[in-house]
Every structure is written in C-alpha cells, then in structure tokens.
Amino acid sequence: MGEGGSDRRAERLARKIEASKSKKPAKSKAKEKAAVREQERRDAIFNAFSNFYEQEYGHERWQTLIEALKKPVRHCIMVNKYSNTDDFKERLPMLPELVPLSSFVSIPCFALANIEKEDGVQEERRFPPPQKDRFGITDYYILDAGSVLATEALDIQPDDRVLDLCAAPGGKSISIMQRLGEYGSLTVNELSPDRRRRLRQVFDGYLPPKDERITVMGKDGTKWYSEPEQYDKVLLDAPCSSERHLLHDDKEFEQWSPKRTVYNSERQLKLLKAAVHSVCVGGLVVYGTCSISSAENDKVVSKMIRKGKVPVEVVKKTWPIGERTKYGWIILPDRTEGWGPLYFSILRRTGVSKQDDNHKEEEDQED
Questions:
Q1: pLDDT in tens, 262-271
Q2: What is the SS3 assignment for 287?
Q3: Is 173 domain-assigned?
Q4: Terminal-to-terminal C-alpha distance of the chain
Q5: pLDDT of residue 123
Q6: Quick check: is 358 in a domain?
Q7: Residues making up the binding site for S-adenosyl-L-methionine
Q8: Structure confidence by residue, pLDDT tens digits, 312-337
Q9: Which residues contact 318 (CB under 8 A, 6 or more apart)?
Q10: What is the DSSP pairing of strand 185-189 with strand 161-164?
Q11: DSSP readout, 31-67?
Q12: Which residues of 197-213 are buried (b: 16+ CB within 10 A; e: fewer)?
C-alpha cells in the first residue's frame, strides 16, 4: 500500500481522536447536571438560613454577624486546679503569648494574643494539646470563654450541690469543679451512652482519682422529676441549633430548616421545666445555648415564666463581654473579638410548685 493510503488513515485516526476529546461522555454530563442541582439545593438552604436570621437581626447586623460566625472558633484555656501548678509553670514559656481573662472570669483562663498579618487579617492560632502532669492529671481544658462565663453566672459556692443536666462534652462540668470545695457535689447527666462514656474519660483525665464528689447519670433530662428541690444550682446547657457549628460542617448544615429551631425550642422548654423542678427554693438555674435564635433563647425562658408550674424570677446582671437580651445575656462573635455564640439566662426559683403532688408536666400546646 502506498504512502498516500497510510497518510489518509493517519488523518482519519487523528480526526477521531480529536472528536473524542471534544465530545464529553453522557455520564460526565449527567454528573455535571447533578452537581449543579446539588449546588442549587445548597444555595437554597443557605439563602433560607440567611433570610431567617436576617429577619431577626436586621440586614446590617446580620452581615457582620454571619461573617464572624464563618471565622474559626476562638478558644481559651482553663487551667485545671487539680493538676500540678509547678509542671504547668514550667510549660508556660513553651506556650504562645497568653492573655489572662481575669476581667470577666474568676478562675485562671488565658486566651491567645491577637496577631494581625500584613493584610490586616487576624492570624489563626491554636493552643497546643493539653498535657498530663507528673501525677497523670491534665493541665488545661480548651473551650470558648463564653462557656466559662456561663458557669460564672451560677455563682457556685464551695459547698453547693450542683446538677449539670446535659453535661457532654464536659467543659462546663470541669469549670464547675474548679469552684467546688471538699464538701460540694456535682451530678452530671448525659443520655447518650457514647457521650457519657467520653464524659467519664474527661473526668478521669481532669479530676483526682476516685473523686466521690461527682456522680454520672444517664437519664432523659426532660423527665428529671425524681429529685425535687435537691440542688442549690442547676446548669442546663441545652441541645440547640448551634448555627456556628453548622456553618463549618456542610453535611450538618444541609439538615437545617426553620423547623429545626422550633423542634429544639420545644425540647428545651421541657428540659428547663425539669431543671427548675430540681432546684431548691431560692436556688439558681442557668439556662444556656450556643444558638443565635431567640426562639431557642429568650422565648423559651418567656414560656417557662408564663406556663411553668414552678415560680421563677429572672436575675439580671451585666457582664464584661456580650449584650443584654430581654431575659438574659448573649455573647456574639462580631462584638466580642470572636467569642461565642453563647446565650444564658439566670433564673431563681421563688416558691413551691403550683401542683406539688404532680411531678409530671403536661404536654404543652405551644403558641
């Protein structure tokens, strides 16, 4: 066969190869369409989310708040009083530059000093992992400073009997234990077996061995009616929408809808009624969430005041960071150098139950 025939075959082969490059497989196009639909769905969820909270905060405030929520969560370290202080002091020079938070918490807590890059953006910095001291006790706990402030609001005295009704992951419980003395006690409750197991691991790492002041329970917090008026202080860190966490977790964010905050608020009210039932007359309940939704914050407290069978009053205080709400206080990252979100309301029980012989709360028909 001559060279001409070979050239023609080579040309035809080259055209086929070129055509195959320009022609996308049907399967690839289907994937592209599916990806577009998926992105449209995510955009719709985000727009619904943004519109929902813009109605609550107003356009201008929401724009600054959502940008702050998207930034990495800021943490502080809470120094563990049960660890060896000499070991911690030896480690201090190896830690980044620390700023004491003594202006708004009474136990030793430190934040990292803010450092700006050349472009004016805050440098993202992290604490090194905590370490064990010579006796096997962990030296510090990493958490949001707002969480420490919520336990500050409990005004814990050394001999108090305290209940932490929804205790996992354990940072607030460890904070409470920093304030309790030899004759104080803490009952911690967590319904989930896995979270309760991790909770025990936290206590094993941060507290003295076989500390008999702490008791771990695994009950449904909404049905905590077997111990009326048994505690001086009750902390209810209620499960909530946790919007800042959602914005940093695509899979979790896809589950968001306005109904989520409604569902959470119904459960939160049941938990709050149980918490108030458990505190003694004159005792304090601190109701807290990490939600930015008033439906899960002030409105839950409002329903407790109006519909609860146990009389309570709101204790109003002013704190160094955050801002006042109708029934409590909220720490939001756009106005507190990155702390929060964290909402809390302090309630004092003022009397006995309106129906002392009935420990079961009726199912509420919420408006």
A1: 999 999 999 9
A2: strand
A3: yes
A4: 90
A5: 62
A6: no
A7: 166-172, 190, 220, 237
A8: 999 999 999 999 999 999 999 999 99
A9: 324
A10: parallel
A11: HHHHHHHHHHHHHHHHHHHHHHHHHHH-HHHHHHHHH
A12: eebeebbebbbeeeeeb
The backbone region for 282, taken as left when phi is positive above 0, alpha when psi lies in -120 to 50, beta otherwise, is: left
**48-57: long-range pairs with CB below 8 Å, 24+:** 48/257, 48/258, 49/243, 49/253, 49/256, 52/258, 53/243, 53/292, 53/293, 56/292, 56/293, 56/294, 57/292
Tokens at residue 324, please? 């006042």
**Does residue 230 belong to any structural domain of this protein?**
yes
Would you state the torsion angle of the CA atoms of residues 335, 166, 356, 304, taken in this order, to the nearest 10 degrees?
30
Q: What percentage of the chain has pLDDT greater than the value 90?
A: 73
- Can you tell me whether residue 219 is helix, strand or coil? coil
Answer left, alpha or beta for residue 119, where phi above 0 means left and psi between -120 and 50 means alpha. alpha
Average the pLDDT over 240-255 and give the result: 94
76, 109, 240, 290: which one is catalytic? 290
Q: Classify residue 155: in a domain, yes or no.
A: yes
Domain, as residue range, for 223: 145-349
- Residues at the annotated binding site? 166-172, 190, 220, 237
State yes or no: is 109 an active-site residue.
no
Residue in the block written with tokens 């010579």: 134
- When computed from its CA atoms, the radius of gyration of the chain, rounded to whole angstroms, is 27
How many Å apart are CA 243 and CA 289, to the nearest integer? 11
Q: How many residues does the chain have?
A: 367
Residue-level pLDDT at 365:
41
Name the domain count of the chain: 1
pLDDT at 360 (0 to 100): 47
- Give the Cβ contact number of residue 352 at 10 Å: 13
For residue 96, the 8-state DSSP code is P
pLDDT, position 115: 59
- What is the pTM assigned to this prediction? 0.86
Kindly report the CATH number assigned to the domain that includes residue 150: 3.40.50.150
